[in-house]
Every structure is written in C-alpha cells, then in structure tokens.
Specification:
The protein is an all-beta fold. About 0% of the residues lie in helices and about 50% in strands. It is built from no helices and 25 strands. Strands 11, 12, 13, 14 and 15 form a 5-stranded antiparallel β-sheet that branches. Strands 2-1-25-24 form a 4-stranded antiparallel β-sheet, with no helix packed on it. The radius of gyration is 19 Å and the shape is globular. The relative contact order is 0.15.
Length: about 300
C-alpha cells in the first residue's frame, strides 16, 4: 500500500502549474489513506487512517513547516457524509473547527459539533430549526466568509445557511434567482476572493450546465453577479477552488465520461500532475503558524509568506 496515497502542492502565482512538490506526511503517523477536509491560514485538517489498524485520527497540519498535532476525537464519527470548516474567531482569540453532517437529526442520529482549540474538546451545537437536510458532499468544505460558516440547506426550498463563528447564531441568505433548483441539480457554496460564491450543476437533456455566481455585497440578494456558464456533458459535481488575478476560475470536477477526477477553468482543462483517482484540492496560503498549543497567539504576528498554493 506504500505511496498509493500522497499529497502534492504547487504555486498559484499564475494560471500555470509551477513548482510541483510532493509533501511529506506528518512524522507521527503511518497513513494507510488520508483525506484533506479544509485549509485555513496555511493549516490543513486531515483525517488519517493508520496502517497498523482500522482506526483514524484527525490532524491539524502545517504543510509548510511539516508540524502537526492530533485533534481531539469528535463525539460523533467523521465517517460518512460530514464536512468540516475552520476559521479564526477574533472575539475569543481562538481557532474554531465546525463539523456538519449531510442530514439532519430526523434522518441520522448525527449532530453538528464545534471545537475551540483552547477548550480541547468538541461540543454539540443546535441545528438550524427549519432545515430538513444539509446539501453537502464528502468532498465539500464549509466556506467561512465575513466571520461565518456557509453551506446550502433545504426546508421548503434551497437557501444558504450561515453560522456566525463568534456567537454561533444561524442566518439565511437567498440563492441567486438564476440558479436551477431541480431535484437533479448539485448546488454548493464556496469562497472566491473573500466573497460568497454559489454554483449549480444541473442534469438537463444529457447536458451538465455549470453556472457560477459571486455575491458582491455580503447578504444582499440583489448583488449576486453571474460569472460564467459552461455547457459540458462531461462536467459533474464541480466545485470552485480559486480565482486567478485575470479572472480565471479553477474548479475541481468529476469527468462524467471517464468517471475520474479532473480540474478545469472556464477556458478549458487544467492539468495537475501527478493525477489521482481520489484527487481533490484546496487553495491555501503558506504560513509559519505552528500547529500547536500556542497556535491562536500566532494570528497577530508576521507569520505569512503570502504565496498562494493548491494542495491535492
């Protein structure tokens, strides 16, 4: 099983693949397989299935410094359909990690949980009172913009759920008017250049149109702006990852014809080497923040190299 799972990174200084390097796994684990959940301030949350048994652990890892710590085990397993997000809470001077299941309590006995790093333990949080299920997939991460985590939920219709990171209060943001809300449509939320980004991928008459919007003024429905629409029968379950300075948007997707993972832009394919069957990617900024006990205090220091990269 050696080297079947690997993590790579490359520079995002231009819309070209540059400076590809294979990252070393944290020295305190022997991975049988791993999954990257999200990145924040140069830190990544990864789940590692260890080679010596069937157990798994969550790590907070800085790929630039190669330092890592083992995170506490959630009360409810991270197996199956759940997504994580991480952000810094300036009110408490602490990093917080949010874990949200795909389904609500009525469907599965799995709850949302939050971990404040200083507390050292997870705690259950209340669900949004009106949500029947969360539209999340295992490859999604929770987008944090304007001090709140965001994802798509469903009650009588689809809408954007927000959860304030400091006060843990829920809010709602309407989706753009032009988004397709059919049952056969994938809908998601991500972050592009500090803005909320909504996207849809419908299945219409053998085609898979992929549409993308950004919200220029946070929380204002009228400020949704369409960036592009791609009609491609082979694009399935796309997710925006990064926007270059020239406006080119890098996105991950499943190639419906080959049933493999791929990357593309609105201008065509974008090839990352080496490829992988379970490939997913996360844009991150290199930093020197230590993934350890003093991590929150490093937020205010000069800890960033400001080089944007993608990890896959």
């Amino acid at each position: 099983m050696k080297d079947i799972f690997s993590i790579h990174s490359c520079s995002l200084s231009s819309a070209q693949v540059e400076d590809v390097r294979k990252l070393d796994f944290p020295s305190n684990v022997e991975p049988r397989c791993c999954q990257v959940y999200c990145c924040c301030d140069g830190l990544a949350i990864i789940r590692v299935d260890e080679s010596n048994d069937e157990s798994h652990i969550l790590l907070l890892w800085n790929p630039s410094t190669e330092e890592s710590i083992v995170l506490p085990t959630p009360e409810f397993s991270v197996e199956g359909y759940c997504c994580l997000g991480m952000s810094f809470d300036s009110n408490s001077d602490d990093y917080k990690i949010l874990k949200i299941p795909q389904y609500g309590n009525e469907c599965r006995n799995v709850y949302g949980e939050i971990l404040a790093l200083k507390s050292g333990s997870w705690r259950k949080i209340d669900e949004h009172p009106g949500v029947i299920f969360n539209m999340l997939y295992v490859m999604h991460s929770l987008a944090c913009i304007h001090g709140a985590f965001h994802w798509v939920g469903f009650s009588r219709n689809y809408f954007v759920i927000s959860l304030n990171i400091s006060y843990e209060e829920y809010g709602e943001i309407p989706l753009p008017d032009g988004i397709c809300l059919r049952d056969s449509t994938d809908i998601g939320i991500s972050e592009l250049e500090g803005m909320v980004c909504a996207y849809s991928n419908a299945y219409l008459h053998g085609n898979h149109p992929f549409k993308l919007w950004v919200m220029k003024d946070y929380g204002l429905k009228e400020s949704w702006i369409a960036l592009f629409s791609i009609a491609n029968p082979y694009i399935s379950m796309p997710m925006p990852k990064y926007r270059f300075a020239d406006g080119t948007v890098l996105f991950w997707y499943i190639n419906f014809r080959r049933m493999t993972n791929a990357y593309g832009t609105q201008r065509g394919p974008f090839r990352l080497l080496p490829p992988g069957l379970a490939q997913n990617g996360f844009a991150f900024t290199e930093s020197l923040i230590w993934a350890g006990a003093e991590l929150p205090s490093a937020k205010g220091g000069q800890m960033y190299t400001h080089r944007r990269k993608i990890m896959w």
